[in-house]
Structures are given as structure tokens and as C-alpha cells.
Design goal:
This protein has 2 domains: 68 residues, no CATH class; 66 residues, no CATH class. 57% of the residues lie in helices and 0% in strands. The protein contains 7 helices and no strands. The protein starts with a helix and ends with a helix. The relative contact order is 0.09.
Length: 147
């Protein structure tokens, strides 16, 4: 736990003393329980602010519910704030630890939702190649069926 999160807990967070698997569980029931506790928490905004700050510094989205939002919901906030797109390939923020996903890659486009020009161009090219491959396989299958 970071110093910012410790301050949130000290400020009377509703999650203090609750089972951690509610926030870190991947099931719908755990997520809904966590969001229900967060909804009435006086420290919810401070928790979300601290979590977004930590994720931004580390470049990794934390699993689970923090500040009433899931990992996917927090990723949407990070994306809405803009993903840096300097030339020459830069690690995408909020990528998995140790993964050096670069702009202009399929992973940056699909996995992290980057919509810079390089990533969009790569996404289009990959889809074009996939469609061409599908058409070729379909034509091959039809040719074999006629034999």
C-alpha cells in the first residue's frame, strides 16, 4: 500500500476491515459487493485519485476495484486523458509489467486502445491481411469441394 492509499484508509475508508477478495476478485459478485461499499464511502474520491496517480506513475493498471471503479473503467479514464504518442516507439502506459508494447503495434491498438496514427495504421493493416487470408482460405476450400 502506498502512502497515498494509507492516507485514504486513515480518512475513514469504508473498505477498511472488509475482505480483500471483494476488491481483488474477478467475479461479478465480488465486483458488485466492492462497488456497493465504495458507493457510500466518504473517501471514494480520494481513493480513486490516489489509485489513478499510482497507476500513472507505475504505468500499470492495478487489478480490482478502487475508488468504485474497475480496472477497465480506470483504463478508460487513463485513455481519455490521452496516451502519449511521441515518434520512435514508446512503451504504452498501463501495459502489463515487463511488456514493452510500442506504438504502431497490434498490441497497442487492440489491447490498450491506443488510437494514435501509427497504431491505427497497424490495426488496419493487420485486419486487411487477415481478411485477405480468410478470402484465400475460403477460395481454397471451395476449390477442394469442387474436386
Amino acid at each position: 500500500m502506498t502512502a497515498a492509499m494509507a492516507e485514504v484508509h486513515a480518512a475513514g475508508a469504508a473498505c477498511a476491515g472488509k475482505p480483500p477478495d471483494w476488491w481483488l476478485g474477478s467475479g461479478t459478485v465480488q465486483t458488485e459487493l466492492a462497488k456497493g461499499v465504495c458507493a457510500g464511502c466518504p473517501a471514494r474520491r480520494a481513493c480513486l485519485r490516489a489509485t489513478l496517480e499510482v497507476e500513472g506513475e507505475q504505468g500499470v493498471a492495478l487489478p480490482g476495484v478502487y475508488g468504485g471503479l474497475t480496472k477497465a473503467e480506470r483504463l478508460a479514464i487513463h485513455r481519455s486523458r490521452g496516451v502519449p504518442t511521441p515518434p520512435g516507439g514508446v512503451r504504452i502506459p498501463w501495459a502489463k509489467s515487463g511488456v514493452a508494447t510500442r506504438h504502431g503495434s497490434w498490441g497497442a491498438y487492440m489491447d490498450f486502445g491506443c488510437r494514435c496514427e501509427a497504431c491505427v495504421a497497424t490495426g488496419r493493416e493487420v485486419m486487411r491481411k487477415r481478411k485477405a487470408g480468410d478470402a484465400r482460405r475460403t477460395a481454397d476450400a471451395r476449390a477442394r469441394a469442387k474436386v
